[in-house]
Amino acid sequence: MSSSITPTQHAENKMHVAVFAFPFGSHPLSLIDLVLKLARVAQETRFSFFNTEKSNNSIFLASRTNLPDNVKAYNVADGVPLNHVFSGDPKERVELFIKETPENFQTALDMAVAETGQKISCLLTDAFLSFAGSIAENLSIPWIPVWTPVPHSLSAHIYTDMIRQRYAHSLIHDGSNSGRDGNDVELEDQTLEVPGLSEFHFADLPAEVLPRDAQETLFSCMLGQIRHMVPKVDTLVLNFYRELYSEPL
Known about the structure:
Keywords: Transferase. The chain has helices at residues 7-13, 27-41, 53-59, 92-100, 103-116, 132-139, 151-158, 160-174, 182-188, 218-224, 226-229; strands at residues 16-20, 46-52, 71-76, 122-126, 143-147, 237-238. By secondary structure, it is an alpha/beta fold. It has 2 domains: 7-148, Rossmann fold (3-Layer(aba) Sandwich), CATH 3.40.50; 153-229, no CATH class. Strands 3-2-1-4-5-6 form a 6-stranded parallel sheet, with helices on both faces. The longest helix is centred in the N-terminal third of the chain and has 15 residues, at 27-41.
């Protein structure tokens, strides 16, 4: 007796990788570059690339016609209300996007599964989007975050709590409370006793890691979740060049 596989069964058996992009700066460009390389090697695997419409239009403007057949871009809601007038704060668009997550990605993900008839096999995401870990866990699939910035910045986010505690302890120990006196200057110049950051100083840290007198934002809170991400991941992809970074990193 011969058996046959229907087109639907064949589609269900193929790998389907969902890719979540962080739609700001060079993040989506770095991620789609990796996806295109993977897609050309793994031609039997489908890659669904989820990103905001504005970012998709930008990165695919010149390369859309050259996309492999196994790569398709999907738009996710950017969180910007209709007829919204921006204040001029560059972080406003980022904050609106974060408010929309993770529901915007989940909605688009469901759409891609319904359209292709293929369940998601793996999540490949920008590491900033730490909520992807919960989605992968709910789907019982591997989650592979991609860290596109320089590698030592990942260490800053992993050890954020330690950095803040040491900074606060030093402020109390030095008796500084104004944020502008000599003790503070000395504190800002102190090196960080943190793995991968031994050559850096408190002054080198952005507000997202060390708020100082600034208030926490949705963006800094999102980055603060990265320290909980690392123990959960199956694999972590780093943008690393041995010639550029010191051995301790």
